[in-house]
Design goal:
single chain, 421 residues, alpha/beta, five-stranded mixed barrel, 7 helices, 16% helix
Length: 421
């Protein structure tokens, strides 16, 4: 049995994951276009399609080092007169005659009159260095008519679409575009995220740790996740949980496309992020019916007459990362113009019983493997607390436990969001 979740609001004080995603995702679109040097465009999304400026290859050419011949002249052990050489860098106007051959190199244009290339290995002749060539060549093994000839336009015809707009630029795509002499392309801009950790107890790795303090692992994990999503991040100073810290929250954020804070959104005396948002703008919602990650805040602020959206992540490490995957990664992909913004999902059988009695949707960290007979199997990590980062280190998926099921039995099937491509 596959256990599926519904989309209704379960807890009146919290909104559903789907409703939160709908609200957040609706606020973001792809960013503007920018011209980029082709050599620097890998990882961007192409904004305008690229059409072939000419046939590629631009001429019939040889796929092998060997001899250009007329197929009708070929016979085993027959000798042909070699009348010249043509390299990839040169062309010839010579028209091949009966019982003649021309030494030819890979990529060289096929001489007029020739319809086949026989490679060196099928003749009595070894490859030659430089421009010299033998007086004659003997055919040792036969080939078929047309062998080893790459036809003009076999890759792209002039006017054909080389790369469609909206495609993520990869090294092969860069190579294909460069084949037409193009050195600049129009791409979708990458978003920049202002990333801010909060908390009196937080210090940066590399600093001396005092009693009661912890290292800021969250901003390192989330900044890496932002980078892996194709976006840019700007790391801000850690803010303390006091009014002075809140007043500095939005310093130097007005050039960013999104503000993400970590911590300061729980309903506690020292949690002031929501106050900062309301002072500069408004909160769309605060709290989602899920675990880990319930106290997520979403709003917008006005900075120098520019509206910027703010997502406040929970302070617990697993909570912040799970919320990033569900709510931030997709909008970073969307802003870059990427069409498929969601992670791949599979259906897997869980290996142990799960109890979920508080009516919240749970995202359990699991390691998924595929069995040839049983399909996908999900091994649930033994520690699922929201502060146990090892549960993410040793997992490759998030098993979705529906909020309306209090008990999920071992062997039941759940949807799993795969965290690896």
């Amino acid at each position: 049995m596959i256990l599926e979740h519904n989309m209704k609001k379960i807890n009146n004080d919290l909104i559903s994951v789907e409703e939160a995603q709908k609200i957040i995702f609706s606020k973001f679109n792809s960013l503007g276009e920018v011209k980029k040097k082709l050599i620097d465009s890998s990882g961007y999304v192409l904004a305008k399609e690229i059409k072939a400026l000419f046939d590629l290859p631009s001429k019939n050419n040889s796929a092998m080092d060997g001899f250009a011949v007329r197929f009708e002249d070929l016979e085993k052990n027959k000798s042909l007169k070699v009348v010249g050489r043509v390299g990839a860098e040169s062309i010839t106007n010579y028209v091949l005659q009966k019982d003649e051959a021309i030494r030819i190199m890979t990529g060289s244009g096929i001489p007029n009159g020739a319809d086949t290339v026989i490679q060196f290995e099928k003749t009595n002749n070894n490859p030659h260095k430089g421009d010299d060539y033998p007086d004659s060549v003997i055919i040792k093994d036969m080939v078929n008519k047309g062998d080893n000839i790459r036809l003009s336009g076999m890759d792209y015809k002039a006017g054909q679409t080389v790369v469609e707009s909206g495609m993520l630029i990869t090294p092969p795509i860069i190579g294909a575009i460069a084949s037409f002499g193009i050195d600049e392309v129009m791409v979708i801009k990458k978003p920049t995220v202002s990333l801010i950790s909060t908390g009196n107890e937080i210090v940066m790795p590399g600093e001396k740790l005092k009693e009661g303090q912890i290292f800021d692992s969250n901003s390192f994990a989330i900044s890496s996740a932002i980078k892996n999503s194709g976006a840019n991040f700007k790391m801000h100073k850690i803010l303390s949980d006091n009014k002075a810290g809140v007043e500095k929250l939005y310093d130097d954020c007005n050039q960013s496309d999104l503000i993400v804070t970590i911590g300061g959104v729980s309903k506690g005396d020292f949690d002031l992020i929501r106050d900062a948002i309301t002072e500069k703008g408004n909160i769309n919602f605060w709290g989602i019916n899920m675990k880990p990650g319930k106290p997520l805040a979403f709003g917008q602020v006005n900075l120098n007459n520019k509206e910027i959206f703010h997502i406040g992540l929970p302070g617990n490490s697993v909570s912040s990362y799970v919320c990033f995957e569900l709510f931030i990664r997709p909008i970073l992909m969307k802003m870059q113009g990427i069409k498929n913004i969601y992670r791949r999902k599979v259906v897997a059988r869980v290996d142990k019983e799960i109890k979920n009695k508080d009516g919240r949707r749970a995202y359990l960290r699991v390691m998924v493997n595929k069995d040839e007979k049983q399909g996908y199997l999900a091994s649930i990590y033994n520690k699922q607390d929201s502060n146990i980062f090892s549960s993410l280190v040793y997992s490759n998926g998030l098993a979705i436990c529906p909020e309306e099921y209090k008990v999920i039995k071992s062997g039941d099937q759940l949807e799993v969001i795969m965290l690896e491509d």
